[in-house]
Design a protein that fits this description.
The complex is a heterodimer of chains A (122) and B (113). Chain A is mostly beta strands. Helix content of chain A is 0%, strand content 45%. In chain A, strands 2, 4, 5, 6, 9, 10 and 11 form a 7-stranded mixed beta sheet that branches. Classes of the chains: A mainly beta (122), B mainly beta (113).
C-alpha cells in the first residue's frame, strides 16, 4: 500500500518568504508527527497531531512555525518569514495512534516516515 | 527526560567485518528504544525496536541489538557487513504519552571493499 508522501521533495525560497510543506499520511493513521533534520543532526520533534488537533506542539521553534490538519488526514506545515536557519529536511511520520496515556503501555505503534522535504532558504 | 547518545559520528568497517554502532540511553522509566536507518536521499526506515519484551532484538537485514539495563545501552550489531549497509543509523527513544521520538545525532557507517 501507499506510504507517507510529502510534497514538494525540494523547496528553495528566499529569506523572508512564506512556505508550505505538505504531508499525506498512511490512510487510517490518526497520529501524525513533524520532525526537522538539520545537516549533521538527528531528526528533532516539532509537532504531533492526534486526529485534527495538535496535541503537542512543544517542538515548534517559534511562532513563525505553524501546522494544521483540518480533516484529520493531510497536514500542512507553514513557515512564515523564513530565515536561513530554517534550512533543513522536514520529515513527516504517521502511526495508527499514539499508544495511549499510560507510559508503561504494553504496545507501541510504529511511526512510518515520509521521504522528507528539503527546504533551502537563500 | 528520556534521551539517547550515540558514540561515534562516523564508523568505517571492511566488508565482512563486524558492525558495532553504540547507543546509550537516559530514562527514568522503562524505555522504548529504536534503531532507524537512513539511506541517501531516502526516508527513515525502522530497523528494530525494543519494547520491554526480549532483551535481544532482531531486526531487518541481519541487524540485532541488545538492551542492557545495567549499562543503559542498546548497541546495534551485525556479524558481517555488506556494502549495502552503508547508510546513516539513528538510535531513538520514545518520550511521553504522545510517542514522540527523541533521536541521537546519528552514526554514518561506511563499508570498505
Amino acid at each position: 500500500g501507499a506510504g507517507v508522501s510529502q510534497t514538494p521533495s525540494n523547496k528553495v525560497t528566499e529569506k523572508g518568504k512564506y512556505v508550505e510543506l505538505r504531508c499525506d499520511p498512511i490512510s487510517g493513521h490518526t497520529a501524525l508527527y513533524w520532525y526537522r533534520q538539520s545537516l549533521g543532526q538527528g531528526p528533532e520533534f516539532l509537532i504531533y497531531f492526534q486526529g485534527t488537533g495538535a496535541a503537542d506542539d512543544s517542538g515548534l521553534p517559534n511562532d513563525r512555525f505553524f501546522a494544521v490538519r483540518p480533516e484529520g488526514s493531510v497536514s500542512t506545515l507553514k513557515i512564515q518569514r523564513t530565515e536561513r536557519g530554517d534550512s533543513a529536511v522536514y520529515l513527516c511520520a504517521s502511526s495508527l495512534n499514539a499508544g495511549g496515556e499510560d507510559i508503561y503501555r504494553s504496545s507501541y505503534n510504529e511511526q512510518f516516515f515520509g521521504p522528507g522535504t528539503r527546504l533551502t532558504v537563500l | 527526560a528520556q534521551s539517547v547518545t550515540q558514540l561515534g559520528s562516523h564508523v568505517s568497517v571492511s566488508e565482512g567485518a563486524l558492525v558495532l554502532l553504540r547507543c546509550n540511553y537516559s530514562s527514568s522509566v522503562p524505555p522504548y528504544l529504536f534503531w532507524y536507518v537512513q539511506y541517501p536521499n531516502q526516508g527513515l526506515q525502522l530497523l528494530l525496536k525494543y519494547t520491554s519484551a526480549a532483551t535481544l532484538v532482531k531486526g531487518i537485514n541481519g541487524f540485532e541489538a541488545e538492551f542492557k539495563k545495567s549499562e543503559t545501552s542498546f548497541h546495534l550489531t551485525k556479524p558481517s557487513a555488506h556494502m549495502s549497509d552503508a547508510a546513516e543509523y539513528f538510535c531513538a527513544v520514545v518520550r511521553g504519552a504522545t510517542n514522540k521520538l527523541i533521536f541521537g545525532t546519528g552514526t554514518l557507517l561506511a563499508v570498505q571493499p
